[in-house]
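Researcher: For the record, we're logging two predictions in this thread. I'll number them. Prediction 1 follows.
Model: Prediction 1, sequence and structure:
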Amino acid sequence: MIIDKLENISLYSQIPDSVCEFLKTLSEDTLCGRYNLSETDYVNIETYSTKLISEGKFETHDNYIDIQLLLSGQERIYIDTREGLKEENPYNLEKDITFYVNDISGSDFVTLNGSNFVMIYPHEAHAPQISYNNLPQCVKKAVFKIKV
């Protein structure tokens, strides 16, 4: 997992140039939807209300690395290793996702606030969209999907 300031994202050689170039065009006014960056990589821009910690679920992806950053608002992403988590349902190949039943509340977290990003690899579990200080708010987020 990589957690860093947005201004440093181009320092990571494993992040495709297409991601860094698209980041330069992002703002709070960027329309929601899916934007293809290459034949395999894309970004989803979405808005939603953050969830209470009691509603959070760990998830993992087998085929994509996530790079997540906020365009407005704040949220927490809880993080853990995939090892030892109990699956809620079998892996969904079409959506490249597995959800887990484990409680997230004792895990470490990252607070996304618009000035930073988190890069999450397939061996890492994350529970996104969690309210900052348990106060739900509307956020706008970019989730880059980088094919492994």
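Researcher: Logged. Prediction 2.
Model: Prediction 2, sequence and structure:
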Amino acid sequence: MRNSTRTALAAAAMASASLASGAAQAATLIVDVTGALSYDARCNAAKNECGPTNPNKNTVMLFDIGAFSQVTALAYNVSIASVGYSYQQDMMFSLSDSSGGSRLGVRPAYAAGTGSGTYSGARDLLVGPTFDLFTGADGLLRIEFSDQYDDIRNGIDGRWRSGTITLTYEPVPPTSAVPEPATWAVMITGFGLAGAALRRRKAITA
């Protein structure tokens, strides 16, 4: 009798756990950088320069990855070219929420001069006490392609010729999960068996 009670309770517990396990799985976003242009320094959030039509003309991309999602890792493989006497090492892309506030900046060609080149790299676990990148309530992830210095005033400092940026992020799990009919059936059966077993055990004891 004890074994049947344990089995029934275990079935009910498993069904309940399946309801509670709405944990989000890591997702991937692949961004094609082909055609992006770097004109100037990154937008200034304090001056309200971080909208889709950025006054400094830098290419800005917005991606809806879900409200309050967290970006945890990135990798890139890009081909870039500086213009004129601009340096490749000054070209960068920045990740932020849609406001352009707290962000992460990456310079693929960290020590290269003028000209062009292809660069790859990765950063893992973009979390911790000093940096956490979350989207806001609108769910938008903002990527801006910029230049450290405005070498060519009112002109293009760098071109992103081809390549991709791959982002790993974790969506916020739903606050409540609606069970499927099969889950309800398992739960009801499990709790029913547990109740019957307990009642029978009391009757035998009496």
